[in-house]
Amino acid sequence: MAPGRGGRAARAGRRAILAGALCAGVLAPARSEPQQRDSLPRATDAGGEGRTAGAHLTVRRAHPNWPPPAGAAGPLDEATWGLADSIADFRQREPAEGAPASERTVVRAVRDDDALYVAVRAWDREAGAGGIRATQLRRDADLGSDDNVTLLIDSYHDRRSGFLFKTNPNGAMWDAQLAGWDTQNEDWNGIWSVAVSRDALGWTAVFRIPFRTMRFHAGDNATFGFNVRRTIRRKNEEDLWQSWKRAQGLSHLQNAGELIGLGALARARSIEVRPYGLARGEEVERDSSGARLNDAGAGGKAGLDTKIALTPTMTIDLTVNTDFAQVESDRQVINLSRFPLFFPEKREFFLESSGIFAFGTEERAQLFHSRQIGIRDDAAVPILGGARVYGRVGSWTVGALDARTGTIDGANDAVVRVKRDVLDRSYLGAIALQRSGPGVVGTERAGGIDADFPLVVRGHNVEPKIWLAGTQVPGARGTPVAWRLSTDYPNDRFDNFVSVYRIDSGFTPTLGFVRRTGIWETTGHVDWTPRPGVLGVRQLDIEAVPQWDIIAGASGSLADVGSWETASFEWQPVGGTLQSGDEFAVHVVRQLDAPADSFDVFRSVDIAPGRYWWTRGELHYATSPGRPVSVETAVSAGGFYDGHSTEYSTAATWRGG
Q1: More confident of the two residues 72 and 560
Q2: Cα-Cα-Cα-Cα dihedral of 458, 495, 554, 442, to 10°?
Q3: Which residues in 321-474 belong to E strands, given as ranges?
Q4: Which end of the chain is more exposed for a tag (fewer CB within 10 A), N or C?
Q5: Neighbours of 497 (CB within 10 A)
Q6: Is the pLDDT of residue 97 over 90?
Q7: Residues 344-360, mean pLDDT to the nearest whole number
Q8: Is residue 87 within 8 Å of residue 106, measured between CB atoms?
Q9: CA torsion 185→187→189→190, rounded to 10°?
Q10: Distance CA 118, CA 36 (A)
Q11: How many whole angstroms separate alpha carbon 85 and alpha carbon 67?
Q12: C-alpha distances out from residue 627 to 87, 104, 203, Å
């Protein structure tokens, strides 16, 4: 264990006891709240926007005796929680958009010098009859199979980014950073705690979120964006305080409410230091004849990670001899194609605010992918030292990274990223990268510009987006470029998307990832998603036009079938979700691949050069994850290159609790 972690664990334990006391405190005043539906306040929807005009929750400052001795609720009931402001007007997003929530939810908030406390009381008429679903216990587990509550805190109050904190009735913790309405960094792990309790009338969760976990603008009258979502699993019901329209949701920050009354906030220039040490010992090994295979030996390694709050909105991370010993292993994947696979970043040093550095299209063409630092030719190389600085300065989002690797790599990798806010949620951005050092021949450079315009037009989401990038590496002439233009229309009854790419042959982002070069590509789908309200169907998903992904050679044309190198058309004549939460889908898939060289798909199974078309049929059914036992079954059969293949898969999950 690294020095200092024991003290943190002890403090976390005391905070858990305190939060348990807060649960007891918040329950008492909550019981005095009438549970009848007729007693709920009726707020007005501001122009049909899915939010209440002027919606806010006032944070009460804790009284001077806060916090109480561990385990003692003391005067908390009346002096703090009993007088705190509350919100209770939750509405359904699913299944009945805009209808009052079927179960009452009450939320209160208080603060002290160090943290924000949010108490959520989730009433449930069937709590005593086993109506509350709670199976998960692990940190960052998928809580979608359970009843759960999620807090959204937009601490910058810029309607562009935020933090998500989620728990279930077991007190399992899940968190994420939100960068824009469609980008979640679920690998982020913040410092916070939650305590829960259950009784015959429902369950209660009290969140303790230290101010140092969040990033905000210091000032005397701080205001945070705020929203709360509750999921009632047995009903497959999603309730929100604000942003409850189906074309919105929790991540649409422009529709969130506000936390007011926070008063003066100042993020201390805290320093978090995490040293580590690893020791290694080897014994002599011998073969069956007694011959010596190796020598005995011992070794060790030490390093340090540091996080420093430069300002309330800017943070710097430093690392020396970075420890990757506890990094989560990559999942095992069978690659049946002739193209490289994408693996996500799992190393903690690179995870916080990683969305700032994102540029390009994930898994297809990314100008920067931090996984390329410290890994060369699929082998790990040590990171001798590195630094990251990131955050917000006015209307600018900025990030810079520099890392030095050792041994055979011997490289210095540098990245600078900036974004300028425009309109309500849009941005214009740029990025520059450079790789140099004794282990690099010459200097490798890359750069690009991008723009993202998530708009709301007459209540419908429309998001045009464009990026343009170029690379310069020794041995390649000029500056090969790549670009992509796309438009997304993600709404309730229609979900449509179209994009066009161009990636030059010599495009080489050495600190990024590109799946294929020398191509034209177009992708898209046109989905009609009606809600018939009959036969137990909640929503259908019908692809009026088959989903497509077409790639042509750089000298060819997307309009010329003869110049296509690969193509995939996936038609879903029917699919959807039932009121029970079960899902079903029927697919017909038509595919093309035209390899110029032979390649292996299995051992001793080669695909010869040629032009192959084949068709497959697929059936899929999955029961609701809210059931004690859920089953997911899929079958796929049809052609595969010049042969035939059939695939079956069945998975069953039992959830106790």
Answers
A1: 560
A2: 80
A3: 360-361, 365-366, 375-376, 379-380, 383-393, 396-405, 412-422, 426-436, 444-452, 455-457, 460-472
A4: N
A5: 16
A6: yes
A7: 84
A8: yes
A9: -10
A10: 23
A11: 19
A12: 31, 23, 20
